[in-house]
Amino acid sequence: MTASEDMVQAQRLRDLRASRDDLERRVHDLKLTRQVTMQSLPSIRLVQENDKNLIGKINSTLVNTVPLWRQQLAQTITIYRSGQAAETVKAASDLTNQLLEANAENLRQANVQARTEIERGVFDIETVKKANQTLIATIEDSLRIADEGRRRRQEASTQLEACETELRQALASAQARTRQPAQPPVSPAGGSR
Fold first, then answer.
1. What angle do CA 128, 133, 134 make, to 5 degrees?
2. The pTM is what?
3. pLDDT (0 to 100) of residue 89
4. Could you list the residue range(s) of the whole structural domain that residue 58 is in?
């Protein structure tokens, strides 16, 4: 064999060994994959069991917890409403107490005013005394004015009588003059015109 043939043979041998090694690696990888796959079977079973158990737990929660939630929610609402009702009753009681106190105080004040007016005379004595003094002053004014009027009337009557007398005398004098004949006027020189 020649050297070139030896080289070709050596190359083939290397290629065969490389193919063999490659095949061994693939087989080894397949064995590893088989082992990992075999290991994943229990993992898959565990996940499936966990999922099944979780589904059971969720169903149990829904069956047991949701009614409990409903009950707790209803109880919370009832407690809230009871608290609101208690506050309303308290407010009503407080308002009633305030009204009772206010009405009692108003009654007291109204009673004091009413009793004061009931016990008061129809007229206050001060008012009666003042009215009496004013009436007396009015009567005295009336008497004084009447006396003064009477005095003035008497004075006027006296003056009227004097005036009437003077008027009569003047009329009598005038009548007497009309009855006498007219005399010529006397001149100062002693002669007539």
1. 95
2. 0.36
3. 94
4. 22-91
